[in-house]
Structures are given as structure tokens and as C-alpha cells.
Write a structure and sequence with these properties.
27% strand, alpha+beta, three-stranded antiparallel beta sheet, 73 residues, 2 domains
């Protein structure tokens, strides 16, 4: 009986400490998630040897980062 009381007497405060840590520990970290940047490489229409690099923030509208960024040997 005493062991059971002692076990529960330690479990309850530890549970409270963990719950308070979760509530207040994450309160200051409410920053937004990092922005996603999509990067795509593709061969250009002008040449099948020059690879161009494109980037987008939404995965739909891509802008050119570099033309002929890579040309294989």
C-alpha cells in the first residue's frame, strides 16, 4: 500500500511538470514555418545540352534563376 502511494505521489508531480513545460515551453516559439522554395532544373528549348534552373515559392509560377547553368562535358 505504501509503495503504491509513493509511486503515485511521484507520478503526479512529474506529470504536472511535463504538462507545464509543454504549455509554456512552446509559447515563445510561435514563429511561422520556414517558407518553401521549389527548385526545378530542365533543358531549355534552345538547346538539349544546356540545363536551366528555375525557382518558385508556390510550385506553380517559376522564374529563371540561371540559363545554361550546366552543360555536360
Amino acid at each position: 500500500m505504501i509503495r503504491t502511494l509513493r509511486k503515485h505521489a511521484l507520478a503526479i508531480p512529474m506529470t504536472l511538470v511535463a504538462a507545464v513545460g509543454l504549455l509554456f515551453g512552446a509559447a515563445g516559439t510561435g514563429s511561422a514555418a520556414p517558407a518553401v522554395t521549389y527548385t526545378m532544373v530542365a533543358f531549355s528549348n534552345d538547346s538539349d545540352r544546356n540545363m536551366d534552373v528555375y525557382q518558385s515559392s508556390n510550385g506553380t509560377d517559376f522564374t529563371t534563376v540561371a540559363t545554361a547553368a550546366y552543360t555536360p562535358p
